[in-house]
Amino acid sequence: MSSMLETWQLTSTTAEPNAPVNWYAVQTRARHEKAVAQRLEEQGISTFLPLVSAVHRWSDRRKRVHLPLFNCYVFAQLACLNESRYQVYRTHGVFGIVGPNGGLAIPEEQIEAVRMLLTQELGWSNHPFLKIGQRVRVRGGSMDGVEGVLVSRNGDRTLVISIDAIQRSLAIRIEGYDVEPI
């Protein structure tokens, strides 16, 4: 899906003193990610907007465009104070901060993982979000169509197939298989 990857990162040094600073996902209007990132930066808020470079074709031309990796989202580094949150909510094009009670902090490691992926020009593709404990279906291979619960055991992805009526389960390693949420 991606040919050339790049990121757009706007940073600022103004933050509330002695307040813990965390990353949050800010939900934006469709196609307003770059403008929102720019507006937040102008207000002194550090942002991270991962962009992917793609070639779009029209009937008369082809052009390389830079699109957000995650549509309708910009990451912002905010202090855990109401003033900084209020500043974000007042920004034109912002729907809100993702999560209950003013937002759910995103671990720094996850932001750094996205940055690393974008800087390494590795092949990647979007994948449905899967959580351990979620019901999934195997797609492709000899187990195509098999459904079960995704678990992790010793770092391996395992599919647990249960027969509820007799309260018995089987576990099988599914590394290498594509799975989709049900």
Write the layout of secondary structure elements.
Elements: E1 4-10, E2 21-28, H1 33-42, E3 46-57, E4 62-68, E5 73-79, H2 82-89, E6 94-97, H3 108-119, E7 135-139, E8 147-153, E9 156-163, E10 168-173, E11 178-181
How would you portray this structure in words?
This protein is α+β, with helices and mostly antiparallel strands and 182 residues long. The chain folds into 2 domains: 4-119, NusG, N-terminal domain (Alpha-Beta Plaits), CATH 3.30.70.940; 135-181. The chain has helices at 33-42, 82-89, 108-119, and strands at 4-10, 21-28, 46-57, 62-68, 73-79, 94-97, 135-139, 147-153, 156-163, 168-173, 178-181. The strands form 2 sheets. Strands 1, 2, 3, 4, 5 and 6 form a 6-stranded antiparallel sheet that branches. Strands 10-9-8-7-11 form a 5-stranded antiparallel sheet, with no helix packed on it.
Secondary-structure element pattern, one letter each: EEHEEEHEHEEEEE
Give a short account of the largest sheet.
6 strands, antiparallel
The average pLDDT is 82
Please tally the β strands and state the result: 11
Q: Based on CA inertia axes, which overall geometry fits?
A: globular
According to CATH, what is the topology of the largest domain? Alpha-Beta Plaits
Distance between the termini: 24 Å
Number of helices: 3
Q: Helical percent range? A: 10-25%
Low-confidence stretches: 1-16
**What's the domain count?**
2
CATH architecture of the largest domain, by name, is 2-Layer Sandwich
CATH H level, superfamily name of the largest domain: NusG, N-terminal domain
Cα-based radius of gyration, to the nearest Å = 21 Å
**What is the name of the CATH class of the largest domain?**
Alpha Beta
Instruction: Work out the strand percent.
Output: 35-45%
